[in-house]
């Protein structure tokens, strides 16, 4: 099931995406009663996907991100694979949705894309054992862990380099039907040119390991997001570029880079 968050006529709602580009009339959204973090019903009221504005699929309390979780990506930046996961945060103000503009940070001259699988948490949880991880996951979406690479190199902490406004595009929706996230294709294109191509099977630590590790230290809330790292091929973005993250079984998240006003 694909669950989207969207705006129409000034109202915000969740809906189940039905159909695809090959469907006559295109895909539609069946508006749900309530929200996806509890039992819900489909209302039967449907609107064409083309008539709505897709929003970030969730508004997370926090985004917990993992660095250097693909060996080739660590190597391309001259780093070793860490002995324990490198964990950092992106603030809620970093989150934008599909089609929203990425504002090039004024304090950087080296903005990089990082295509990532994002895990959407479905229920409050802490100290989750590995065998229960699936029970706390609502689904998965696409993410772009935008990074001011020059700032990341220069500063001890990554807060500014990875936490600036618009640095966390998410979308286009949450896919709840992925049984095994361990072998999904991930691709990033810039202006239609392939930049990154990898598979989640290349992750050093699995989704299960990451959730166990994170929840040893903190409580995750419904709607929180975990970013699982990026494959090799990260590279620069410029004002005017269109960057797209595509993940097998989920869809494509597209955003354009603009000059920060």
Features:
mainly beta, SH3 type barrels, Fumarylacetoacetate hydrolase, domain 2, 12-stranded mixed beta sheet, 5-stranded mixed beta sheet
Q: Which radius of gyration do the C-alpha atoms yield?
A: 18 Å
- What is the H-and-E element order? EEEEEEHEEEEEEEHHEEEHEEEE
Number of separate strands:
20
The biggest sheet, with number of strands, parallel, antiparallel or mixed sense and barrel status, is:
12 strands, mixed
Domain Fumarylacetoacetase-like C-terminal: 62-257
Domain Rv2993c-like N-terminal: 1-57
Keywords: Hydrolase, Metal-binding
GO molecular function: acetylpyruvate hydrolase activity; isomerase activity; metal ion binding
Walk me through what this model shows.
With 261 residues, this protein is mostly beta strands. The chain folds into 2 domains: 2-53, SH3 type barrels; 63-259, Fumarylacetoacetase-like, C-terminal domain (Fumarylacetoacetate hydrolase, domain 2), CATH 3.90.850.10. The protein has helices spanning 71-76, 149-154, 159-163, 207-215, and strands spanning 2-8, 11-18, 28-33, 41-48, 53-54, 63-67, 86-90, 95-96, 102-104, 111-113, 115-121, 137-144, 147-148, 168-175, 185-190, 193-199, 225-227, 235-237, 242-247, 251-259. Strands 1, 2, 3, 4, 5, 6, 7, 8, 11, 12, 14 and 17 form a 12-stranded mixed beta sheet that branches. Strands 9-20-19-15-16 form a 5-stranded mixed beta sheet, with no helix packed on it. A 3-stranded antiparallel beta sheet has the order 13-10-18. The model has no long low-confidence stretch (mean pLDDT 96). One of its GO terms (biological process) is carboxylic acid metabolic process.
């Amino acid at each position: 099931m694909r669950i989207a968050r969207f705006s129409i006529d000034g109202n915000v709602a969740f809906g189940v995406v039905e159909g695809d580009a090959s469907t006559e009339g295109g895909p539609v959204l069946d508006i749900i009663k309530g929200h996806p973090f509890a039992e819900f019903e489909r209302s039967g009221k449907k609107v064409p996907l083309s008539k709505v504005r897709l929003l970030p699929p969730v508004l997370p309390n926090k985004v917990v991100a993992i660095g250097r979780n693909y060996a080739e990506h660590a190597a391309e930046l001259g780093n070793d694979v860490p002995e324990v996961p490198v964990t950092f945060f992106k603030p809620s103000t970093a989150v934008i949705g599909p089609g929203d503009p990425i504002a090039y940070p004024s304090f950087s001259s080296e903005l990089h894309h990082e295509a990532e699988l994002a895990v959407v948490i479905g229920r409050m949880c802490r100290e989750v054992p590995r065998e229960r991880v699936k029970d706390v996951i609502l689904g998965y979406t696409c993410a772009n862990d935008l990074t001011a690479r020059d700032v990341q190199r220069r500063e001890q902490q990554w807060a500014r380099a990875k936490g600036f406004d618009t640095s966390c595009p998410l979308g286009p929706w949450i896919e709840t039907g992925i049984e095994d996230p361990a072998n999904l294709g991930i691709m990033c294109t810039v202006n239609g040119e392939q930049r990154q191509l990898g598979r989640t099977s290349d992750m050093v630590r699995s989704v299960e390991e990451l959730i166990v590790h994170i929840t040893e230290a903190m409580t995750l809330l419904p709607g929180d997001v975990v970013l699982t790292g990026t494959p090799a091929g990260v590279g620069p973005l410029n004002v005017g570029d269109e960057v797209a993250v595509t993940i097998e079984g989920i869809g494509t998240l597209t955003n354009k880079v603009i000059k920060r006003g």
